[in-house]
What we know:
CATH topology of chain A: Tetracycline Repressor, domain 2
Domain HTH tetR-type (chains A, B): 14-74
Oligomer: homodimer
Largest sheet of chain A: none
Distance between the termini of chain A: 79 Å
CATH superfamily of chain A: Tetracycline Repressor, domain 2
GO molecular function (chains A, B): DNA-binding transcription factor activity; transcription cis-regulatory region binding
Pfam families (chains A, B): TetR_C_24, TetR_N
Protein name (chains A, B): Putative transcriptional regulator
Keywords (chains A, B): DNA-binding
Amino acid sequence: MAYRLTEARLQKDGEQRERILQLALARVAEGGFAALTMQGLAEEAGIATGSLYRYFRGKGELAAEVFARASQREVDALALVLRGAGAPAERLTQGLLQFARRAWDSRRLAFALIAEPVEPEVDEQRLLYREAYAELFVELLEDGTRQGHFRPGPPSLVAACVVGAIAESLVGPLSPPARAARDAGHPSLSLEQVSQALVQFCLRAVGAPLPEDER
Amino acid sequence: MAYRLTEARLQKDGEQRERILQLALARVAEGGFAALTMQGLAEEAGIATGSLYRYFRGKGELAAEVFARASQREVDALALVLRGAGAPAERLTQGLLQFARRAWDSRRLAFALIAEPVEPEVDEQRLLYREAYAELFVELLEDGTRQGHFRPGPPSLVAACVVGAIAESLVGPLSPPARAARDAGHPSLSLEQVSQALVQFCLRAVGAPLPEDER
Lengths: 215, 215
């Protein structure tokens, strides 16, 4: 009987932890990591702040877990396209377009994941997830090279360059100043302009010449 | 008389602050931001830890200032080459080669600046300095486009892509695991391989076709 009680308790703890994580994710999607405070989250979850520390050792651990959860969704979505059907250049194009569109659809969250200044624990996760993205591009680059469509340098390095280019190209358009300018009606780059420039940049960079480059 | 004393005191304070900053910079160059502790630094400077807080409000502010000092050196060095003499493609090439070589010569410091997980105050500075680098590349891209050597997309966006590619291409080779592998005698990419791949990637990406791409 004691054993069953413990099992029930563990399951309940797991469910509570998951519920807190979902609330935390929603907060970051709404206001970035700056909006993720232990006290505010505890209030929203209807538990004491002290109890929150039973589930997460601190803000850093919680933020890192939110980051990993949200980033894994993006890695999975990108993997589906990069490993999907079609010629390598087309998969690269579609992967970039999808990544930019998903970031655009959740700008606050995307900026939080890519560049918001935050606890070192999240920086650690950023390094890990950049590697996860890079591995997907390594696969694609090797595939494209075998099929004669790409002529990149060392795949691990070129994949890192692609990941860096994607992230950095989105930092500006997604950053708080850019969002404020757009909200105030000032002109700024559209999703289409950003996507198109990113696709052109990356296709050229991996040695997949574009129609407009033929001469 | 009182006025002169105050002036002398201010100057002495400024010199002491500068001395502490130099010690802090040396620590980061040696062991990254992880090696920068207020207590260790105070001991090395021969002052009480409490006194250190008279000069810097905390580890975050100190680390941010060390970051800015070291990064400004890199921005200045890059500006000299990118704004120097020569055709735009040659300046881009030389700028990339110099940046990679300088990073290679101070690997621990370069990794600390580019990617070491650290206080949010340093992340803030990273965003600012990435923009400073990007502005240099915008100038070069516009110059190269006017001269008909480059055919990039929107310069601000392409410059960001270049900055991202540079940073991310160096993260792997400079990271602690890569340094450990090299120290243990395992094969890893050389400076020449990394530099060459980065130059090829960026020249192609900005629409400056390489000799090997002509066909």
